[in-house]
Automatic annotation (TrEMBL), chains A, B, C, D:
Annotated binding of Zn(2+), by residue: C47, D49, H108, C111
Cofactor requirement: Zn(2+)
Pfam families: Pro_CA (PF00484)
Catalysed reactions, as listed in the record: hydrogencarbonate + H(+) = CO2 + H2O
Organism whose genome encodes this protein: Paracoccus sulfuroxidans
GO molecular function ontology, one term from the record: carbonate dehydratase activity
Annotated SMART domains: Pro_CA
Keyword Zinc set for record: yes
Protein name as it appears in the record: Carbonic anhydrase
SUPFAM superfamilies (UniProt xref): beta-carbonic anhydrase, cab
Amino acid sequence: MKLARPLPHYLVQRYHGWKATTFAENRNWFRRLAEDGQRPRAMVITCCDSRVHATAIFGAESGEFFIHRNIANLVPPYAPDGEQHGTSAAIEYAVNALKVAHLVVMGHTNCGGVQGCHAMCSGHAPELEEKTSFVGRWMDILRPGYDRVVDFPLEEQIPELERQAVLVSLENLMTFPFIREKVEAEELALHGVMHDIAAGGLEQYDSAAGAFVQVL
Amino acid sequence: MKLARPLPHYLVQRYHGWKATTFAENRNWFRRLAEDGQRPRAMVITCCDSRVHATAIFGAESGEFFIHRNIANLVPPYAPDGEQHGTSAAIEYAVNALKVAHLVVMGHTNCGGVQGCHAMCSGHAPELEEKTSFVGRWMDILRPGYDRVVDFPLEEQIPELERQAVLVSLENLMTFPFIREKVEAEELALHGVMHDIAAGGLEQYDSAAGAFVQVL
Amino acid sequence: MKLARPLPHYLVQRYHGWKATTFAENRNWFRRLAEDGQRPRAMVITCCDSRVHATAIFGAESGEFFIHRNIANLVPPYAPDGEQHGTSAAIEYAVNALKVAHLVVMGHTNCGGVQGCHAMCSGHAPELEEKTSFVGRWMDILRPGYDRVVDFPLEEQIPELERQAVLVSLENLMTFPFIREKVEAEELALHGVMHDIAAGGLEQYDSAAGAFVQVL
Amino acid sequence: MKLARPLPHYLVQRYHGWKATTFAENRNWFRRLAEDGQRPRAMVITCCDSRVHATAIFGAESGEFFIHRNIANLVPPYAPDGEQHGTSAAIEYAVNALKVAHLVVMGHTNCGGVQGCHAMCSGHAPELEEKTSFVGRWMDILRPGYDRVVDFPLEEQIPELERQAVLVSLENLMTFPFIREKVEAEELALHGVMHDIAAGGLEQYDSAAGAFVQVL
């Protein structure tokens, strides 16, 4: 690897700041986490988006959340085909090896991935339909969600499609046999939440109501 | 989706705490981030591990880092085959749509995924070699790294394999044409770092030395 | 005191969250509690164990429970010998100064203190028998309970000893003259309960049945 | 034990409410905590006072804090004399068996125990000086603190004595050889904090300043 570059100095400075404060204050806890291994209570699947950090919103400390982040917080359907499925690998490890108690899918407003999916499905982004578009092929996971929102008024389609990114993922999670089994045995709880960046809001999916409702 | 459950109350409480403090203090900034979109300076690829949060170590605020997290912070080789590649999609979006200036791959000590890969490659984990093992197939990405460490003394193999998880990923990044092009045009800088959980340490890959060196 | 350290930042953040939500919503009540003093309805004696918080299980709000927590929720026999008895001091203050109406001793499953007592009494923990072992000397209080369970089948001994930690404590409470007097005058009610951590269960001691029965 | 009474119905009702909500939401986590044992990050020593619940102020969830509560959050000096020392037993278990990373002593305003100590030491509470007074003998631990505040203006003496209840306890903690050793090896951090009930405030002891300062 000949082309790696030194870290920008501002990151080095911040790291030293972290080490002299947060690390120093929690030295013994970090040593125990390293020696005894992690025992996270929840897995969180959320977007790569730089504006949405689950650790901040839920005040998660080191050791609490096992976090997978991908474009648009999507879970593909169960497909044990021998190919590389990074999301499915993360889920398998969290549920079967770490035995997390909760699996939270957190979507968010203003999601670029969801906007791209909407443009693609509505015929406005031919470049995303190309075989070579990684973002396009990834957003294919959300096509079933687009079909459910296409008859909504135009201005509601994208917000609804952001919610579908959570719902389709929850549905796909239930296609994994080891998840279905644990959910039905009440050994694992699934949760779907939506975060509103501008308003700092949080909704959660209420299965009885069949809708997202504000968290009270 | 009939089986979603309400969030555990402690998460709801913490969310309300976040909203009443961090969000309230930064309301205008969050509104701008929502309206104007994100403009992150760096993409960070790191592990799902609950003990390693790049936002903490690098003091990253909302809007700064576009973060992809998967098992063992791996990047697969470029493969525009029309299949779903979540990691490649995240990279494509960060580099081509968001035009990040830096791409940091951060590995860490005590990595369960790397330990599994070592067990699998050394013949001690047949269950990971099955076609249906998502973790096994994902860790196949690191097999070239195992080949480079197999002749090391046994006690050094896993620490070295953790470093290989960073190096193999950096090498694979360079197989993406749009990355190679930007790296060579000096429009994008790649960085490889290793975080030591117990010691709070940070090493970075020094291309000239051909080795990881402590960050000073 | 030269060695006190700043609180870890995550606790400071959580405190600020609490202040901005729970405290802000109940400001007037907290002020009254401070000005008029506490008037708790019950004293609860429970274990230090991090998995058993009486405030959660019984939904206790600020001002409701006067709570003493020690290893294995033990009460020593009345011993007005001029020595320091922290548990007896807490009881005296609750009963005579605060005039609580109820005194609840709550035991729990998976109690490390009880397990240590069992190991010590059955000859498997010589280190706990040393004069300098604070835990060992404290668990001496439960030796009379061990004598009652030693003839049970081995797998029942620890669960029964956990119940004895409640019963021996209730018996010892009755050796305090000011408690006996109030109990007999029906000015104070004693209660013994057992909490099952894994099952979320609750049993209470039924004097008529001479056994713990599930709370209905 | 012939005199145990059934729990008041309101507590039974609240327990059932907790079981149907908090427990049900966290069933799997509680099962894991029971099976794998607790691994608390911190021990908190705080008062029995019904108005001061560390779990609330610091948002502590099940499994996070090992909590000892006694009158006035006092720690006696190290005294391995073979007698029963409940506070020392709790500390020994937390530090040596559970290997907590932090030990927090939290005092509070309006502390009845501290007021009693002040009355006793200033000659206004002869009943507390009797050998048979458990509260009096327990508050003897704080007598060295009284000596440090007796020359302050009268209206400052009690608030200062409340702070001394934290400081004397921290000093006494350092007389335990296993604590001194771990503190000096940076394997255990001691913290002293003061909570103001009426104002919802929090101060922490700053060793460099030699004073309690507001938590920012």
